[in-house]
Design brief:
single chain, 195 residues, alpha/beta, Spore Coat Polysaccharide Biosynthesis Protein SpsA, Chain A, 9 strands, globular
């Protein structure tokens, strides 16, 4: 089973006051953390760079008609460039997601399920997701064409499965696994946890 990974790195990062993917954590950029995570499970790694020119290899910009429309536009750019039947999507601000969790998402895909994402503490995590590439590409393009910018309604419109806390037990503590580094304060907290 061939797998493409799409790392979402195209956000404006206003809360991070600069290029979020290039911020350092544990001696590596957030983007490098994401690439190391997905390299364990993906045959191809793409970086969704959004509407700007991000100086990284394998960058795919948003399609002009959807430029600046948020993560869903970035996901579509990755899906359209993907070479493989299955695609993983990982936001670059989630540096603690373990590769075995990504494998678990991929294993949950099936003939009747084109999208698998997680939910913990009542919160869905739509930017850690496994997709069957062709149906997801069609679904995301349709959603964007209809003016939908939110990711979760798009996933819920596909045949999907949500892995809950019982499914994720071996990846606890989940607040650490899914720690989202959106701000300089979040980045500082991650550094303090490692100290």
């Amino acid at each position: 089973m061939g797998v493409t990974a799409v790392i979402l790195a195209g956000g404006r990062a206003t809360r991070m006051q600069g290029e979020k993917p290039l911020r350092l954590l544990r001696g590596r950029t957030l983007l490098e953390h994401s690439r190391r995570i997905v390299a364990h499970v993906a045959d191809e790694v793409l970086v969704s760079s959004g509407a700007r020119d991000l100086p990284v290899p394998y960058a795919v910009p948003d399609a002009p008609e959807f430029a600046g429309r948020g993560p869903l536009a970035g996901i579509l750019a990755g899906l359209e460039a993907a070479k493989h039947e299955h695609t993983l999507v990982l936001a670059c601000d989630l540096p603690n997601v373990p590769p075995p969790l990504l494998r678990r998402l991929l294993e949950a895909l099936s003939d009747n399920c084109d999208c698998v994402y997680t939910q913990h503490s009542g919160n869905p995590e739509p930017l850690v997701v496994a997709l069957t590439t062709a149906p997801a590409r069609a679904g995301v393009r349709k959603a964007l064409s209809m003016g939908v910018n939110k990711v979760l309604p798009c996933w819920d419109a596909l045949p999907h499965r949500v892995l809950g806390e019982d499914d994720l037990a071996k990846f606890r503590p989940l607040d650490r696994t899914f720690a989202n580094v959106n701000t300089l304060e979040d980045l500082e907290q991650e550094m303090e946890r490692d100290a």
